[in-house]
Amino acid sequence: MHAYLFPGQGTQFPGMGKELFDKSKIAQDYFKKGNDILGYSITDVMFEGSAEDLKQTKFSQPAIFLHSFILAKTLGNDFKPDMVAGHSLGEISALAVVGSLDFESALKLISKRASLMQKVCEIENTGMAVVIGLYDVIVKDVCNQIEGIVVPANYNTLNQVVISGELKALNEACEKLKPGAIGVVNLAVSGAFHSPFMQPIIDEFRLVVEETKFKNPICPIYQNIKGRPSGNIELIKENLINQLTHPVMWRHTILHMIEDGATEFTEIGPGNFLRGLVRQINKNMKTTGIS
After folding, report:
1. For residue 29, what pLDDT is reported?
2. In angstroms, rounded to a whole number, what is the distance separating the alpha carbons of residues 3 and 24?
3. Taking the CB of the first residue and of the last residue of the chain, which one, N or C, has fewer CB atoms within 10 A?
4. H helices within 75-100, ranges in order?
């Protein structure tokens, strides 16, 4: 069975999508439509903007979605997913490519999500860091010992966990984890995604989700909250909302997909981060990428 994966924030790069735009009429049409929907030229930011420009949440999220969605559309009849999943933001890309959201609805939802998250980032003194080489239970236990808010945000593999929280608590956790870890690296983000610090935007994001029309996807989508396939539209929506304040259960997602018959994983979108995680989770899996 063939599973398709869609990346999240952090995979953006200057010039992303330019080659795709130059080579494909389908891509040109979607990119132009995307500019119209957003009300500004996201293609200018993607094709000509700097890494610093693209790092801004309000630009990086729609840019990554467009790159992933349009790549999938250019595959035409070759895109035949048996199951899909997306990492954080990538969950909306996955929902769109399997027909649960139409292109316009998905892009508007992502644009609103990005602007809300950026607003929180500008207010809170928070951040994120990746911990490599320690079991996830150890990382979680250390976070629990810290005074202040710092929590696991992404369970990427058994021994790669991203933590998220207020800077004082985050830095304290990093110092405690460093002696036993292979590496502890602060991420170039200014917010504590997938943590309680996203709570102030939940109600507003919920309103946007509830106003958005969802359909049943053409295949199972494994969502970040539990890493299990979501069987109905109401559950899909609720999981999408709660994802903002809950950790991305990526290792669990991949293991459940394998358990349910996945034998090949294809990552669609910028970078090769997700296929690398799949190989760490199960080295026997066939992985490919379309980027």
Report:
1. 96
2. 25
3. N
4. 90-97
Q: What is the pLDDT of residues 180-210, one digit of tens each?
A: 999 999 887 768 999 999 999 999 999 999 9
Instruction: State how far the Cα of 148 lies from the Cα of 123, in Å rounded to an integer.
Output: 17
Residues belonging to the chain: 291
Number of domains in the chain: 2
What residues are labeled active site? 88, 194
Spatial distance between the Cα atoms of 5 and 179, rounded to a whole number of angstroms:
33
What CATH number is associated with residue 207? Answer: 3.40.366.10
Q: Are 254 and 275 in contact (CB under 8 A)?
A: no
Cα–Cα–Cα angle for 112, 115, 253, rounded to 5 degrees: 70
SS (H, E, C) 127-189: EEEEEECCCHHHHHHHHHHCCCCEEEEEEEECCEEEEEEEHHHHHHHHHHHHHHCCEEEECCC
Q: Which residues contact 41 (CB under 8 A, 6 or more apart)?
A: 35
Give pLDDT tens digits for 107-162: 999 999 999 998 887 666 888 999 999 999 999 999 999 999 999 999 999 999 99
- Residue 161 backbone class (left: φ over 0; alpha: ψ -120 to 50; beta: rest): beta
